[in-house]
Amino acid sequence: MKKITAAIYDAHVKAQRPQAQIDAYYEPKEIFNKRRIDNVLGHLDPQPLEKILDIGCGVGTFVFHSAKKGAHCFGLDYSMESLKMGRGLVASFVVTGEAHFVLGEAMHLPFMNSIFDKITAIDFIEHIDMEEKDELLFEVSRALKDDGLAVIFTPNKIREDLGELYWKMRNFLFKDKVPKNELHYGLISRMDFEALLKKHAFDYRLYYYDTTRPYLARLPFLRHFLSLDLLWVARKQRAL
Description:
By secondary structure, the protein is of the alpha/beta class. The protein contains 9 helices and 7 strands, in the order H-H-H-E-H-E-H-E-E-H-E-H-H-E-H-E. Strands 3-2-1-4-5-7-6 form a 7-stranded mixed β-sheet, sandwiched between helices. Helix 1 packs across helix 5.
């Protein structure tokens, strides 16, 4: 699958008005956007003066919401236009913490060892391949303090696979066009990702979420297949 370049993200951001980004991510108008943000923040729980890194920050959704809580936040992305938009948006609000935006690659974090209390990667790992996920978790572990927390949120591969099967059946029966999502070439199963978490010495817990139909994430057993998203809270083990 062809990888998505920074230029593609740059063009996407430049095509959108700042108010559209505010309405989607800073002061979300749609209930599913609000649920997504609340779900992540509920586990991230930003505290005053904590150092938090958001990998693949886009226009700074979780940089902004964490800085509002008084945290010292860094947003990292390889899209310059996303970072420019994020700086401008955060500057238009009053936050009690700090918000910094850094151009860089997630697999080569430009930060010292053991510097962050918490790191997020929200709707990011589905955009990188398996080798890059391995490198990412190495870097996350390196940059986190001992006992530091990582919050990782990504679409549920099983749900997306079932959706693809559904549309293929509709195509066969009714000739409907099968939707394609070229961005999600790096979808990963729960077992494969948790094997990587174990490899990099993370203790973790998995949560299921669905921003459109929340009850699907609460159904025993069926949530494994039907919930839209997976969220891992992973804690770096203390060095012996």
